[in-house]
Amino acid sequence: MEKDYIWHYDSPLGGITLGSNGEAITGLWFNGQKYFADTMKGVGEEKILPVFAEASHWLDVYFSGKEPGFTPPLTMRTTPFRKVARKHANSSKKT
Prior knowledge:
The protein has about 100 residues and is α+β, with helices and mostly antiparallel strands. It has helices at about 50-65, 80-95; strands at about 5-10, 15-20, 25-30, 45. The chain has one domain (about 5-95): 2-Layer Sandwich (Double Stranded RNA Binding Domain).
């Protein structure tokens, strides 16, 4: 079974929790937001991972007002309803 990990980042807009499967970012939430960590598989283990270091660097650059110029590894994890809604939204853009 795939394990989830979390990392906390202090942004100028408030605390952010990042989620990862160990290789890519699977979620990013402002602490306390609606649907907080809704795509996590249970309680994630807090652990320093290279992907969190890369994402933290990206956020540091972004919040400094600069263009990061790179994107940390990302993977989409979502609900079946959101998959259908996204597919519908993407197909309606083509017309």
